[in-house]
Amino acid sequence: MPRKKAAAEDMPETVIDENAEVPQEVVNEEAPDSAESVAETEMPVEEHTSENAEFRISDDMGVIPTAESAISEELAALPPDIPEADAPAEVQNSHEEQNTEAHSFYDLDLNALDRDLSPEERREWNSIYASYRGRSALTGTIVGVDRHTVSARDRETGEAVRQDIYCAVIIPFRVRILIPASEMWFAGEERPAFVLRNTVGASIDFIITHIDREGSFAIGSRRLAMRTRRYYFSTQPSMHRQGARVKCRTLSVGPRRCLVECYGHDIDLTQREMRYTAIPDMRSEYRPGQELDCIVKEYDSEKGTLRISVKESGPNPFDGAELRHPEGTRRQAVIAGKYAGGVFCNLPDGAVVMCSYSFHYDDAAFSVGDRVIVAIQRYDFSKKQIYGKIVARW
């Protein structure tokens, strides 16, 4: 081709100067100048999905089995709340890791591994397999909360830090199932560590997200099960209409508050929302794992909020109290609490009387739990409150 040949002849000849200096940035770009950078290139570290840290389970404390190193890997493999099509590249990489893990699970010879299992153990593993494959929810009781030491490397500073991860432990029969704290609560509704530690005995739903068959343990996510229960609740108008009667389960109980779960919604309830009768310490009446009746007060499907009342599932003892305890009568009662100079006294039928002391009594002479005689003075029907006075110790 003559035209191309002529163009080649017109091009100036390139002269290479052997004494010319190569720019420093080019040198740094082509060859790492330190053993540390080479080590980082040759030995990649498994990354967690959080923004600034990479997690690995450590055995420094001497209490963590080697198999539990899968906890940090599983946290990275859990699917996010956003659709995969809209997910960023790092989330898609997490999905690829999850697919790799699933592929390794299906490569296991389960017939050989399960050959010597008892019928109870076989049923236990079959339910775990089914939850892992079909993302079906299981129900179990928390038997303990373990603390695991975690080593982390900040991606920005490169400094090594140590953190503690609390995991709820569920043992249906022989297999230990761990639920990390990050998978216990719905996004945006995280609770302090002491709340998780007080959930021992609570019954929860969870979905298996990782199986270590040879290590005889699994990892689950309560958060994924909560999402499923919330969706089911939103599709049942007869359940979320105002005034509907549903069930809730207690998760954690404190002196003044109780954390309950109702179809995937974690709800804080005060003593006023739990009982008509005044309770000095709610731990004396409630414990984790109880199933209670409750009434739906308000539900917002768009915001995903639910408001319930446990006490309204039963009759109010104030109704008809003016007939059982007319004004001017005296009744035996028990002091249930004190607040701002007033004394809450419980009548035998559950009605609460707000009392003051007779002029010859002092507050220091009475304690919570004392039996007293109260005189019924008046009724406030707008507030549904009974007022009286302590006239004697009984």
Describe what this molecule looks like in 3D.
β8 and β9 form a beta hairpin. The N terminus is likely disordered. The longest helix is centred in the N-terminal third of the chain and has 18 residues. The strands form three sheets. This protein has a five-stranded mixed barrel. It has a five-stranded antiparallel beta sheet with strand order 9-8-7-10-11. With 394 residues, the chain is of the alpha+beta class.
Quick structural summary:
The protein has helices spanning 2-10, 24-30, 35-42, 70-77, 89-106, 110-113, 119-134, 193-197, 222-234, 237-240, 271-274, 321-324, and strands spanning 53-57, 138-154, 160-170, 176-180, 203-212, 217-221, 245-253, 257-262, 265-270, 291-300, 305-309, 330-339, 342-346, 352-357, 371-380, 385-393. With 394 residues, the protein is an alpha+beta fold. It is elongated, with a radius of gyration of 32 Å.
* Strand percentage: 25-35%
Number of strands: 16
How many helices?
Answer: 12
- Strand line-up in the sheet with most strands: 2-3-4-6-5
Q: Mean pLDDT, rounded to whole units? A: 80
> What letter string, H or E per element, gives the SSE order?
HHHEHHHHEEEHEEHHEEEHEEHEEEEE
The outline comes out as: elongated
Cα-based radius of gyration, to the nearest Å: 32 Å
Q: How much helix, percentage-wise, in residues?
A: 25-40%
- Secondary structure class reads alpha+beta
Largest sheet entry: 5 strands, mixed, barrel
Summarize the topology.
Blueprint: H1 2-10, H2 24-30, H3 35-42, E1 53-57, H4 70-77, H5 89-106, H6 110-113, H7 119-134, E2 138-154, E3 160-170, E4 176-180, H8 193-197, E5 203-212, E6 217-221, H9 222-234, H10 237-240, E7 245-253, E8 257-262, E9 265-270, H11 271-274, E10 291-300, E11 305-309, H12 321-324, E12 330-339, E13 342-346, E14 352-357, E15 371-380, E16 385-393
Parallel strand pairs: 4-6, 14-16
Antiparallel strand pairs: 1-2, 2-3, 2-5, 3-4, 5-6, 7-8, 7-10, 8-9, 10-11, 12-13, 12-15, 13-14, 15-16
